[in-house]
From TrEMBL:
This is Helitron helicase-like domain-containing protein. The lineage of its organism: Eukaryota, Metazoa, Ecdysozoa, Arthropoda, Chelicerata. It comes from the Eukaryota. Residues 1-95 form the Helitron helicase-like domain. InterPro entries: Helitron_helicase-like. It holds the Pfam family Helitron_like_N.
Amino acid sequence: MQQNYQDTMAMVRKFGKPNLFLTFTWNPSWSEILNSMEGVQRPEDRPDIIVRVFNKKLIELLEDICKHGIFGTVLAYIYVIEFQKRGLPHAHILLTLDSESKIHTKDDIDKFVSKELPDPCTDLRLFQTVTKCMVHGTCGTININSPCMRDGQCCKSFPKQFKDDTEENVNGFPIYRRRAT
């Protein structure tokens, strides 16, 4: 752990502070995992397969980010893989971008981050993926036993208010555009 910290600090000294923090989590519905299950096995029963598929997907993601420049030119990156309570992997990735690629305005934020549902008429597959994998579950007064509930409130502050425009750097974090349409 100390070595990871030292490596990160060396990266910061040479390239500056990271600009993006990404989390990449395994998905139990990945076809490569499901196709490897035998009989009544569940993905959680085969951590060997999960880790192998996760590592391949992580390498593909890093290639898309670094070689194909989906966020722009990456000067440096570092990541750590952690294992959740049940031993399932996720990666935390720090990216340092060149000055041309850095996010400077709310329009830059909106170019990379969307907190809105895709149009199902335009892209049904994307809509289905987002609603299945990225939508916060029911909580609040409807489901007070949800794991995110603390003292009668959602610890993730859901439901979020609709906003026509992204607000930059409110208490260190943007408040993302969420339109009702």
